[in-house]
Write a structure and sequence with these properties.
Rossmann fold; about 30% helix; binds S-adenosylmethionine; Methyltransf_put; S-adenosyl-L-methionine methyltransferase
Length: about 160
């Protein structure tokens, strides 16, 4: 498979998962946390699929002159490990994390901190969608929507109890 095909399949999985979660989030209060703004493509999708839901965006490097950005109060610039520090525990309905670089030595390190951060921020019953696995005792793998093969993108649900 070419890198282009791999990218397309990954983005299709991301879109299909977020569309599937749009029908599941109504009972879970709280904002959506979008970790990794990039060019804002996923942010644009989220704001269309979850109208009326606040979306807080975390990005270490914001590209200037993008056609749209989140409102300034919803854009937290810096490493999410720092900028999410002030957020309350168990307050988010959905965390979407798309922060892989494609560089194995860098991405391998995500497992040391991202699952714990997501588990802390998610409300009980809230969902996480991520480009990498989120192994954590408080996060249960959630079934993928039909047509999304295992291992391409990951969905988890926050179990009840403290983070
Ligand atoms: C794959 S891109 C995200 C693409 C995005 N979903 C879109 O629609 O364009 C990953 C982004 O995550 C950001 N990022 C990586 N590590 C981060 C961190 N620790 N904190 C905040 N942002 C981070 C990078 O700067 C990059 O813009």
């Amino acid at each position: 498979m070419s890198r282009l095909e791999s990218f397309i399949r990954r983005m299709s999985a991301q879109r299909d998962i977020l569309d599937d979660l749009a029908g599941r989030l109504d009972a879970v209060p709280g904002p959506i946390l979008e970790i990794g703004f990039g060019n804002g493509r996923t942010y644009d999708h989220l704001r269309q699929r979850f109208p009326g839901r606040r979306i807080l965006v975390f990005e270490s490097v914001v590209v200037p002159d993008l056609p749209f950005l989140p409102p300034p109060e919803d854009l937290l610039v810096g490493d999410v490990r720092d900028t999410a520090r002030h957020l309350p525990d168990a307050g988010a309905a959905l965390v979407h994390a798309d922060i892989e670089s494609g560089l194995a030595d860098r991405d391998d390190g995500l497992g040391h901190w991202l699952p714990a951060l997501v588990a802390r921020l998610l409300a009980p019953g809230g969902f996480a969608a991520s480009g990498c696995p989120l192994p954590h005792p408080r996060l249960a793998p959630h079934p993928l929507p039909p047509g999304v093969p295992a291992g391409r993108y990951f969905v988890a649900r926050r179990l009840p109890g403290p983070g």
